Amino acid sequence: MKAAWFETFGSAQDALVLGEQPTPVAGPGEVLVRLHATGVNPSDVKKRAGAFPNLLDDGLVIPHSDGAGVIEAVGEGVAPGRVGERVFVYQAQYGRRLGTAAEYVALDEALAPRLPDEASFDVGACVGIPMMTAHRCVFADGDVAGQTVLVTGGAGRVGYYAIQWAAQAGAKVIATASNAADEALCRDMGASEVVNHRSESWGDQVVAANGGDKIDRVVEVEFGVNLPEVLKCVRIGATIATYSSTVVPEPSLPFRDMMFMDLTVRMVIVYAMPEQAKQDAIRDTCHALENGRLQHRIAYSLPFNEMARSHELIEQGGFGGCVVVRIDD
Question: Which domain CATH number covers 152?
Answer without folding.
Answer: 3.90.180.10
